[in-house]
Design a protein that fits this description.
Blueprint lengths: L3 E12 L2 E12 L14 H8 L9 E6 L2 E3 L4 H6 L17 H30 L22
Antiparallel strand pairs: 1-2, 1-3, 3-4
Length: about 150
């Protein structure tokens, strides 16, 4: 069984007069693909805002763990540095694509972003004298930062 990369443990988020999330827990393992769905008001956006650091650590009850380590995201940058990126849905972009085509397009865009990040990192390392431009940057590449919507 693959290792747990992200764990939510007893996550509860309250707003004045509303409990948006109550005792949410899950484990996400390496190699898995997940989707998040539910009715309006079910807490999907709230959960994503907790995971991405928009609602900072301490503004909710419970804990998130990344590779078994407590995650205390206080900002988007904290979450991105831990490898968490949010890809927002945009329904109006391509009306005539199937789900498979959309996933394929997203994968191609992600590969392009990762490739650009690897190239930029290789250039920085070469300029800093820590690695030749022709060196293997694959091991240095651990995460990327999604540029966000728009």
């Amino acid at each position: 069984m693959n290792p747990v990369v992200l764990q939510a443990d007893n996550i509860t988020k309250k707003f004045p007069g509303v409990i948006a999330l109550k005792a949410v827990g899950f484990d996400l393992r390496s190699g898995e693909i997940h989707g998040l769905s539910g009715e309006n008001g079910a807490g999907k956006s709230t959960l994503i805002k907790l995971l991405s650091g928009i609602y900072p650590y301490g503004s909710y009850e419970g804990n998130f763990f990344i590779h078994g380590q407590l995650a205390k995201f206080r900002s988007l940058a904290d979450a991105q540095n831990a490898g968490i990126a949010v890809i927002y849905q945009e329904l109006a972009l391509v009306n005539d694509m199937t789900v498979a085509q959309g996933v394929s397009r997203s994968a191609a865009a992600l590969a392009k972003i990762q490739g650009q990040y690897r190239s930029e990192r290789a250039g920085r390392k070469a300029r800093n004298g820590t690695e030749t431009a022709g060196g293997n940057c694959e091991s240095a590449f651990k995460k990327f930062q999604h540029p966000g919507p728009g």
